[in-house]
């Protein structure tokens, strides 16, 4: 109301267009103008802007009260105004090849506001990377399943990449990431997941500089659910496997494991692949021509190096009696895998990706945490170090 009254007085009756009226109006405008000044970087119209570190908003002669940054689709970039109100920075990186609009408001000590806007476009990367991940979106998995990402390029700025992957769970549980080398990042809780847990992973990799000049190009949400608990324990000395469902023993199965010189790994292993039938060739795991079986039934992978728990129709009386394999865990089966009543078929039909198979009392070492999805063989202290 004060501004309107001053303007009316300065107008000298409305139809007066003389210079005196203009001078009075200009003086009034100066008297009421905010003393706050907003500066936005990058400047309006800028192109090829870096996705990290380039966006900043500052205020002089006053304090910022509002900063909005959004892309053309209305997606907002979160940020925080500093305690003194003199600056603002985004809480995350920007996407590549994207136009952003910035609107910032500041007020001076008298509460008078000033507004500044800027529109700019981020850089278009020449080199990019993506992450291939497991489990798949929408899947139901066992309690041992980590969320594992393998990157197509070696990452030299792991903190920036890991920060761009967020995991929320229902019910809430602390989930941490661990790097294996520079191209693999796994996430898991301290203990096995609780059955029924719902997991949502946001891959906000678009625009993340994973290594100098190489940027991520994924913006994806992945959801999966934890099913019932199934943990099976193989005792190499006893030649048995005890299957526990939700903490209760439901079956004990005679097995055969690795013979001397080909001992089965000890440790906690996670089923990462299920195959009704597959070919197993010793050439692929460094055993030369020692075996080549084209129709191994009911096979489930436990390691990247070739450890499986699978049906065995050639083992004779080994099951429950002695160890005869080249390192795998064998269960009695029939050629063709047609009999649903044999041990291998029974176990296969009741297993899922992410179930845990524990091997103990073997003469071999404990399997490496990065050999398959087997990070459970690393203590929580080392995992989070």
Explain what the structure shows.
It comes from Streptomyces minutiscleroticus. This is Lipoprotein. Pathway: Glycan biosynthesis; Cell wall biogenesis; peptidoglycan biosynthesis. The chain has helices spanning 2-11, 19-32, 158-163, 343-349, 380-384; strands spanning 37-41, 56-60, 63-71, 79-81, 87-90, 99-107, 113-121, 127-129, 131-134, 140-141, 147-151, 165-170, 175-180, 184-189, 198-204, 209-211, 214-216, 219-226, 230-235, 240-245, 248-256, 267-270, 273-281, 292-301, 308-312, 329-332, 356-360. Helices cover 11% and strands 40% of the residues. The protein is elongated. By secondary structure, it is mostly beta strands. It has 3 domains: 37-121, Immunoglobulin-like (Sandwich); 127-226, Immunoglobulin-like; 230-375, L,D-transpeptidase catalytic domain-like, CATH 2.40.440.
Widest sheet: strand ordering: 22-27-19-20-21-26-25-24-23
Q: What's the number of structural domains? A: 3
Which regions contain 5 or more consecutive residues with pLDDT less than 50? 1-25
> How much helix, percentage-wise, in residues?
10-25%
Q: Count the helices. How many? A: 5
What's the oligomerization state? single chain
Q: Distance N terminus to C terminus?
A: 62 Å
Report the CATH C-level class of the largest domain: Mainly Beta
CATH topology of the largest domain: L,D-transpeptidase catalytic domain-like
**Strand count, sense and closure of the main sheet?**
9 strands, mixed
Per CATH, the architecture of the largest domain is Beta Barrel
Q: Indicate the proportion of strand residues.
A: 35-45%
Compute the CA-based radius of gyration.
Answer: 32 Å
Q: Give the overall silhouette.
A: elongated
**Superfamily at the CATH H level of the largest domain?**
L,D-transpeptidase catalytic domain-like
Number of strands: 27
Mean pLDDT: 92
SSE-based structural type: mainly beta
């Amino acid at each position: 109301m004060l501004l309107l009254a001053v303007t009316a007085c300065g107008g000298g009756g409305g139809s007066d267009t003389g210079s005196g009226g203009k001078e009075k109006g200009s003086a009034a405008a100066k008297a009421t103008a905010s003393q706050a000044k907003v500066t936005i970087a990058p400047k309006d119209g800028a192109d090829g802007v870096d996705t990290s570190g380039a966006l900043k908003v500052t205020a002089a002669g006053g304090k910022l009260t509002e900063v909005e940054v959004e892309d053309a689709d209305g997606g907002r970039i979160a940020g925080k105004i500093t305690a003194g109100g003199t600056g603002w920075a985004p809480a995350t990186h920007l996407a590549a090849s994207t136009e952003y609009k910035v609107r910032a408001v500041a007020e001076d000590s008298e509460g008078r506001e000033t507004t500044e806007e800027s529109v700019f476009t981020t850089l278009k990367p020449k080199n990019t990377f993506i992450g291939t991940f497991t489990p798949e979106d929408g899947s139901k998995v066992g309690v041992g399943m980590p969320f594992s990402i393998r990157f197509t390029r070696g990452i030299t700025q792991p903190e920036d990449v890991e920060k761009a992957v967020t995991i929320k769970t229902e019910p809430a549980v602390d989930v941490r990431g661990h790097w294996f080398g520079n191209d693999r990042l796994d996430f898991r809780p301290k203990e096995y997941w609780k059955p029924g847990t719902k997991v949502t992973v946001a891959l906000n990799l678009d625009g993340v500089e994973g290594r100098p000049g190489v940027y991520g190009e994924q913006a994806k949400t992945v959801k999966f659910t934890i099913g019932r608990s199934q943990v099976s324990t193989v005792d190499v000395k006893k030649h048995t496997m005890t299957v526990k469902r939700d903490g209760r023993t439901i079956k004990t199965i005679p097995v055969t494991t690795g013979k001397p010189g080909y001992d089965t790994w000890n440790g906690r292993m996670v089923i990462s692949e299920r195959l009704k039938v597959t070919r197993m060739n010793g050439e692929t795991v460094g055993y030369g021509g020692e075996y080549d079986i084209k129709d191994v039934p009911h096979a489930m992978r436990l390691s990247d190096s070739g450890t499986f728990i699978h049906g065995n129709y050639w083992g004779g009386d080994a099951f429950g009696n002695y160890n005869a394999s080249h390192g795998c865990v064998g269960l009695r089966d029939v050629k063709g895998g047609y009999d649903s009543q044999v041990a291998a078929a029974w176990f296969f039909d009741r297993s899922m990706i992410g179930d845990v198979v524990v091997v103990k009392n073997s003469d071999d070492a404990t399997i490496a945490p990065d050999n398959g999805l087997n990070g459970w063989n690393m203590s929580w202290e080392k995992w989070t170090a």
